[in-house]
């Protein structure tokens, strides 16, 4: 699923707990194609971020603390996209490990649902290539929340 260009999708994970603590994992995510990673830590709850799209770059999102709602849309035009496009929403939580794969040709927006939520993002694109494959839209271009 990591390299699929069919559409966004979840890679499920799991947890194991015993007297020593909890191990969270997403064994189906193999890191193939990842060129870099970064994370976003919320300062306050309910801060909207986005919309950012990429024609060539793919992303993988996972939450390591708290909960984050990720919204995904496929722009029909990269300069003047329609406002009535369908938006898929994924609730990611550190309590339920999973990775959201977003292939190229999509834009994402997000909202952290907890004050100290941490969203980790893996990217197939190198930072020096980001300038030519970075499309930013107004945060109210599409509704992030349903």
Protein model, in words:
There is one protein chain. The chain has a single domain (9-136), classed as Sandwich (Jelly Rolls), CATH 2.60.120. 0% of the residues lie in helices and 46% in strands. It has strands at residues 9-12, 14-18, 21-25, 36-41, 48-54, 59-65, 67-73, 88-93, 98-102, 106-112, 118-123, 135-136. The strands form 3 sheets. A 5-stranded antiparallel beta sheet has the order 1-9-6-11-4, with no helix packed on it. A 5-stranded antiparallel beta sheet has the order 8-7-10-5-12, with no helix packed on it. The chain is globular. It starts with 8 loop residues before the first strand and ends in a 10-residue tail after the last strand.
Provide the number of structural domains: 1
Secondary-structure-based class equals mainly beta
- How is the largest sheet built, in terms of strand order? 1-9-6-11-4
Q: β content, as a range?
A: over 45%
Unreliable spans are none
- Looking at the overall shape, the CATH architecture is Sandwich
Radius of gyration: 15 Å
Helix content: under 10%
Main β-sheet description: 5 strands, antiparallel
Mean pLDDT: 94
CATH topology assignment = Jelly Rolls
Specify the number of helices.
Answer: 0
CATH class descriptor? Mainly Beta
Please, what is the CATH homologous superfamily? Jelly Rolls
Question: Care to count the β-strands?
Answer: 12
> What is the CA-CA span between the terminal residues?
26 Å
The coarse overall form would be globular
């Amino acid at each position: 699923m990591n390299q699929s260009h069919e559409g966004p999708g979840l890679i499920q994970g799991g947890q194991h707990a015993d007297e020593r603590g909890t191990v969270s994992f997403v064994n189906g995510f193999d890191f193939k194609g990842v060129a870099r990673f970064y994370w976003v830590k919320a300062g306050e709850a309910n801060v909207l971020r986005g919309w950012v799209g990429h024609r060539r770059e793919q992303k993988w999102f996972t939450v390591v603390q708290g909960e984050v709602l990720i919204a995904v849309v496929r722009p029909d035009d990269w300069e003047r996209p329609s406002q009535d496009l369908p938006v898929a929403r994924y609730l990611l939580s550190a309590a339920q490990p999973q990775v959201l794969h977003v292939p190229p040709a999509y834009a994402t927006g997000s909202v952290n649902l907890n004050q100290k939520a941490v969203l980790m993002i893996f990217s197939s694109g190198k930072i020096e290539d980001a300038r030519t494959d970075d499309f930013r839209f107004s945060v109210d271009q599409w509704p992030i929340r349903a």
